[in-house]
Write a structure and sequence with these properties.
Two copies of one chain form a homodimer.
Chain A: H1 7-15, H2 19-30, H3 34-47, E1 63-68, H4 75-88, E2 93-98, H5 102-105, H6 117-120, E3 125-127, H7 136-152, E4 157-162, H8 168-173, E5 178-184, E6 204-208, H9 215-230, E7 243-245, H10 254-270, H11 273-299, H12 304-317, H13 322-331
Parallel strand pairs in A: 1-4, 1-5, 2-3, 2-4, 5-6, 6-7
Amino acid sequence: MRTRLSSDQYATGILAGDRLLLSRAITLIESRRADDQALAQDVLATVVGHNSGHDLLGNGASIRVGITGVPGVGKSTFIESLGSLLTERGHRLAVLAVDPTSQRSGGSLLGDKTRMETLSLNPNAYIRPTPAGDSLGGVARRTRETMLLCEAAGFDIILVETVGVGQSETVVHGMVDFFLLLMLAGAGDELQGMKRGIMELADALAITKADGSNMATANRARVDYQNALHLFPPTGTGWFPPVLTCSALTGEGIGNLWQTITDHQQLTHQNGYHLHRRQEQQLTWFRSLVQEELNTRFFQQPGLRERLSDIETKVRLGVLLPVQAAQVLFTTPY
Amino acid sequence: MRTRLSSDQYATGILAGDRLLLSRAITLIESRRADDQALAQDVLATVVGHNSGHDLLGNGASIRVGITGVPGVGKSTFIESLGSLLTERGHRLAVLAVDPTSQRSGGSLLGDKTRMETLSLNPNAYIRPTPAGDSLGGVARRTRETMLLCEAAGFDIILVETVGVGQSETVVHGMVDFFLLLMLAGAGDELQGMKRGIMELADALAITKADGSNMATANRARVDYQNALHLFPPTGTGWFPPVLTCSALTGEGIGNLWQTITDHQQLTHQNGYHLHRRQEQQLTWFRSLVQEELNTRFFQQPGLRERLSDIETKVRLGVLLPVQAAQVLFTTPY
């Protein structure tokens, strides 16, 4: 059995870039034990804001990029290709995932050993799968905290992948500086698996697998989506989401895509939107923690879930009006 | 001073289609007095579900249509034109509004006497402005309840207009069967005032002012938007949101638009989506009432708003991490 380290020992190790201690600290974050959680929060509080050059908002610490796309779009090979390029350029890259399906399958797709083979052997890349067995809210919290630890350990680019289930895109959009939507070129039915509202969250669209006989289709799709995006309301940031093509196979377009992300960073740092977005994200995170705590306190009362389920059935069947149902829920003694 | 009626007297009058009693009951709904609210809830509980042919979900009672669009798109003249057509066809029409700006201006735009002059004199139309001085949540609740009263009074078509401020479109989308987005044809900058995410809520887009020298521009816009909508993910209902053109001036396209709405009703009644959407709306409404009550109980504690504001400033400035901030909020004694 391993000796239990102090939060200072963890913090010192992480700030020195010790990957083993980073991994063990992330395991504390993922733990459900109260003493692990308390220790994890101590470590976080110690390391975050400790690095010179950035504060608790993480300014200057890293570029945070969210990546989504339907299954089959090629997220893993895309991340491998982008990750190789970034590490070659001297960056240190952490790849995290928000995957609420891992609670069902018992392990993240990202944990699959056949994925990201090259990148997982790269000393300047750190890949951490989603822990299994948690709600989306739990996954979101752990991913945010893991991101902060990785930044403290010196990773200057964080990629957060999402599988696009439930509200996971919105959650990831709420924790990154740049949200990238990967798209497949096809015959118009390419979006069957994509949810409505996602396209308008994107800071850029990238059509993947733009190589070989697929080139013409990819370019046509690029023009179509670019025209469609012109009809969207402006983002309010001075940034116009572009549509790009790329190929993880040939590497074509990957460098161009990264240039787009750094252009976006430059613009939003200059016009103040970067700071604004991070501040709003922190506030939103805080408010959702408050709501979560209020809900936990209320809904954990004995028998309440059963009563709620009974009342909701009556609302659904049209036996109770919502206002009546709320009165019943709050007036019945508990 | 008027005598205070019993809830049975209100209910009988409303079910008989008495407009005066309907108006007085809506005033009760809008009142902040506890005894008025109690009476209003009694009246609601009595009339709703009382009409044969529909239940508490309002099935069979009416078609509920939400209408939004940026200022200047011509919502009022559009509603006048559509309303005249519907009353000529024997329908009885209620026009409500969700306008959270009325709390600032002290009165709804819809209450402006210069608007909807013809319709306001029409015996088969009932126009009710938004009450002033309330939050969006409050406006939403009152509009929902007013809608139920109007349905009980025999109005078979409810139009809910929104000015598109804050989250008002989402709120209106959550209370109607069909959500219509009015758009101006222009030079590409027509959407400056429109928020992102609204286009994907729409069950149809209508390009207004498609008359005279504006026809060609309107038709071009129609084709552009239709192409853009094809790239959107499917709605999951079997319905493909069409883009239409219309003119309140010439009346052209208004009948066609109504046909679209009834086509949608027929499809969604047949495939079960109509019932599903209303059930989900009731559940969402109920859940938001529960959240509202939990928040009220917590945030109304003495001094809590000030402490919260202080803590949020620290989160925004990066002095506290969100998790730390939540701990401070919940552990400090109050």
